[in-house]
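TEACHING EXERCISE
Course module: macromolecular assemblies
Task: Read the component lines below, then compare them to the predicted structure of the full complex.
Student: A.B.
Group: 4
Components provided:
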Amino acid sequence: MWNPGEDGIIRRSDRVPDVPVGLSRFQQIVLHQGRIERFFLDHIRKHSKDTLRVERGVLPESLHIDEDTLEDHSPDNYPITVQLQHLTEEEATPAQSNGSTVNDGLFRSNLAEDDTDDLIAKSRDKAGSTETVRAKYMVGCDGAHSWTRRQLGFQLEGEPTDFIWGVLDVIPITDFPDIRMRCAVHSSGNGSLMVIPRENKLVRLYIQLKEIKPDASGRADRSKITPDTIITAAQKIIAPYNLSYEYCDWWTAYQIGQRVGTNFDYKNRVFLAGDAFNLGWKLGLVVKGVAQPSILKTYQAERRRIAQDLIDFDHKFSRLFSGRPAKDVMDEEGVNMEEFKQAFIKGNMFASGLSVDYGTSMLVAKPGNAADQGDGTDVSSSQPNKVIGQQELASNTKLGMRFPNYKVLNQADARPWEFQQRLRSDGRFRIIVFAGNIVNAQQSARLQNFCRRLASSSLLAPHLYKDIDILTLHSSKRTDVELLRDFPDVLHPFDAKTGWDYNSVYVDDVAYHEESGEAYSGYGVNRETGCVVVTRPDQYVGYIDACDEEGFAGVEAYFKGILAS
Amino acid sequence: MWNPGEDGIIRRSDRVPDVPVGLSRFQQIVLHQGRIERFFLDHIRKHSKDTLRVERGVLPESLHIDEDTLEDHSPDNYPITVQLQHLTEEEATPAQSNGSTVNDGLFRSNLAEDDTDDLIAKSRDKAGSTETVRAKYMVGCDGAHSWTRRQLGFQLEGEPTDFIWGVLDVIPITDFPDIRMRCAVHSSGNGSLMVIPRENKLVRLYIQLKEIKPDASGRADRSKITPDTIITAAQKIIAPYNLSYEYCDWWTAYQIGQRVGTNFDYKNRVFLAGDAFNLGWKLGLVVKGVAQPSILKTYQAERRRIAQDLIDFDHKFSRLFSGRPAKDVMDEEGVNMEEFKQAFIKGNMFASGLSVDYGTSMLVAKPGNAADQGDGTDVSSSQPNKVIGQQELASNTKLGMRFPNYKVLNQADARPWEFQQRLRSDGRFRIIVFAGNIVNAQQSARLQNFCRRLASSSLLAPHLYKDIDILTLHSSKRTDVELLRDFPDVLHPFDAKTGWDYNSVYVDDVAYHEESGEAYSGYGVNRETGCVVVTRPDQYVGYIDACDEEGFAGVEAYFKGILAS
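Instructor-supplied answer key:
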């Protein structure tokens, strides 16, 4: 962080790590949005065997929902009808693609007008083709210009600010020492900027444009915003250091605002995106007939609560960022730099995604009132008796939060794994059997009982491995036990063509080459008696119970509130 | 390791890690040969911009070397002429590709005859086309059937053994507990086998075929070797455990032998491969005119010494592996299992490649006699005074061995790096400046002097960054120094379009999220005064001297014995 000293000149005032220490094995990295998109496109292609393609240049015209059949979940009921307009080649090619991006940085900025209706109208005049789609479910975007939100009549709450910021992706030529560090610079009177290093010597600069103000209508004069005016603003902020560039990769500008939608779903049939990870697996399981349609209402409950928390934070943070630093303790209008630092650290925590703690619902078996812990929607289980997990059996593995990661060893080959790597995002729930110390005959018997019930459960057995995966982590010495001799078959199933499964049973033991052997204490599980944890397909912890016959009854009850059959 | 107990039944007798503990951050992995080849082909394509292609179905017919011009290294002298025969489509398609590989596992096994001459003759009859290639240098293969070796009249020393082993790549169906561990099984009377786990549940099994013996001519009856006879042999060895398979990916069989060539180069113009890593960069630098042609003679000196060591080890190891285990201490004909275990551990060390220690030469400035430390070739420097590095300045960074790896931080962005990742295999020498504690004014002055001489050296300056890269590692606190203020420009060069280089200066300091800060003690370098290490393009340590004006004179003398101009 760089703030003005007493002489008004910026100096490095503080340093904090980008990622809170000890939070995750992953560090922060800035990836170009195009790379993320490419990754998704490649995987859609691969996993659909090239049958699914993303269409572009297609705009929606009308949405009709058959209210009478919304509750009918039979496979051939498609209550949603959307009319699509395929844009002509000319309309589908934005002006930005015709020239250099450097010349049209404000394309699709929130400083520009919404051009959806205009595009549809023009395209219709030019006889672009139309298409009618009938669907069970529909997912729209949640941006300020969302057409789907407009059709549903949902509102955005919140207001834009007067702050306008420019963005430059450039290879900087500068003597500013922290140009390869993510950092914030508050100048005494010329505004603030943020430095975000990227790949190939590129740096993304967020630059406050103090000289650009919205007019009475709330709109800024876009003609004044160019890469030249933005870099000039940056040069004033970062003085006495020099800053220029020869190569600009991209630029834009936008008006800061924090708005959140009042609703994210319409009767569990039409959804506004925002957390694809949360919505995707739920829709998938319902469409496949694996899960009850009622789990869909947890999307809005879980999504909106987090969105509101984030917006509240960003509201405060953007004002701390764009405000003038306090000259001294008497300067009450200025921003307190210690407060800014604390917000910066909290922002890092938010960005990591690991602070999310979902409220109780049919998917998260924890105590309390579902409406209070979410966005007000009732997402409690339809089961007559509320199922509640035994949090104390895995004290550091919190119901409603991500299943934490520790290093474990594969029992069959002693290879170390980050345990989380075994929880693939493949749409499956997971029963994670903390088998405890199975060298102890009594514990071994408890495990056998749990497994016997699991293998013969008429509710769960038909779903095993296909919709519900099983992972085992025991705490005996690896060399004291054998996979085939000491673990029931359901934990490492046999296949007539490929033999036993060697990738499902793990041990919390010391590796030859890496630190490990602390997983049980990390998860907060008793090494002797273990427990059973159920994770949702998005790796959030849904249920915890004992690794025995009674515990199995609890696991079954949890799934009864979720599975369709 | 599995050996017979007193009752003659195999039991797990011992366990050792695959890779010696603490040796490297990399662990062992088995990669399919086709994947390695694909990797090379992709990179040849990429880095040659698709101008270089590997041709197949081309065989050499004749080799002519113009002895009179071998010493003439002018750019237009091509003393080697090779006549090539392009095989017809039919000849170029081995019988193996026509059917299943499972039906022809002995294709190109050393149990099969050399078919080179036969292929050439048949192809000529069928009017395949010929081609004449004139070359400066030529690289042939070093296998038992090497055509190039035959033309040069070099010999293979050593003899085949009577041991014949089969190989099966299968998905095993078995109750043998260690099927996912690399392990060795010695049965009491049915021979030995080795288990090497692969990807996708595949396991490679090496299986001793005790019932197949070479006849008087030294040849085995190949018709008796099939996947069935091999798995039957395995079943006898591994009893009382069961072993079968449904899926076989590939199989072969071969006769064990250890043979090493008498020569690996002919007058520094024709080379026999075997260590492409060692030969490639030397040839590249000579062809580009960067290095003196005399460095080429270090290839045979370095290669043959290592090959002989490895063959000597394998000679002993294969006999320990194929021999019958001793029944008791009185059983002198049997193999001592403790001796086998020690050889197994030594084999793991060999396989890692990190035990290589090259002798003194113009490329490795260490004391002693070049002929004694290599294969007898005189590879000492042509310099009037022998250059010898100051080993004591980097006591754990051995002249002649690979530059070790420790974790360091980038000075500009605090990102941790495995330092070895900065020593890319791009054909460049590297001057690694251990700058020491540059907060100390005296040490800073020593660094300035070294850098001033380096930047103005008429020998080295023209090669900087293009043929000789520079990396810096200092030991001050990262936050006490600034890249631009405290380090001479030559250590982080400026480019008018892309600004300063931020990827050349590192620090041995503590990272936020990872263990680090032990590099200087790891390399054995004094934290106050530092030193300078020169690495060859293959990351072997060539020279060590002080980080001052006098040390620079040594660095210059070392390069004088290598660089062409």
